[in-house]
Specification:
Blueprint: E1 26-27, H1 39-42, E2 48-53, E3 56-61, H2 71-75, E4 81-82, H3 89-102
Antiparallel strand pairs: 1-4, 2-3
Bound molecules: iron/sulfur cluster (SF4).
Iron/sulfur cluster binds next to helix 2.
Length: 125
């Protein structure tokens, strides 16, 4: 009796793995001159730092520390935080560039999430 033929199904090609692939959340222009400061209090890895940029209050996320949990974006009353660098490349660079110098700053006192926005274009979620 001959051996039964074994049919081997070809494996589908695996998706390419991007080396060192890591995305970070980004604090955008809506926060520049607004800064509720609530996001820093919910970040589990302390990746958010306050400072002054072009003379206005701001916060930045250090992309080297962010684990993309999304807690900060949910906390921001005006929706100033986006979930990837691709969504705002300009502010992604600003966050990354400012993070090393903002790290040394004292924590910002958070504003109430019910307080009206300072910036005319911002609206409470
Ligand atoms: Fe922190 Fe999570 Fe926001 Fe990244 S996404 S800055 S880890 S709260």
């Amino acid at each position: 009796m001959g051996e039964a033929a074994v049919k081997i199904r070809p494996l589908s090609k695996p998706a390419p793995i991007k080396e060192n692939f890591k995305m970070a959340y980004v604090i955008t222009e809506k926060c520049h001159g607004e800064r509720y400061g609530l996001c820093a209090g919910v970040c589990p890895v302390e990746a958010i730092f306050p400072g002054t940029y072009q003379g206005k209050d701001f916060m930045v996320i250090d992309p080297a520390l962010c684990i993309s949990c999304g807690a900060c974006a949910a906390e921001c009353p005006v929706g100033s935080i986006v979930e990837s660098e691709d969504m705002d490349a300009t502010y992604a660079k600003i966050n990354a560039d400012l993070a090393p110098q903002f790290k040394a700053n004292p924590k910002a006192t958070p504003r109430s999430k019910d307080e009206a926005p300072k910036k005319p274009g911002n609206k409470l979620k």
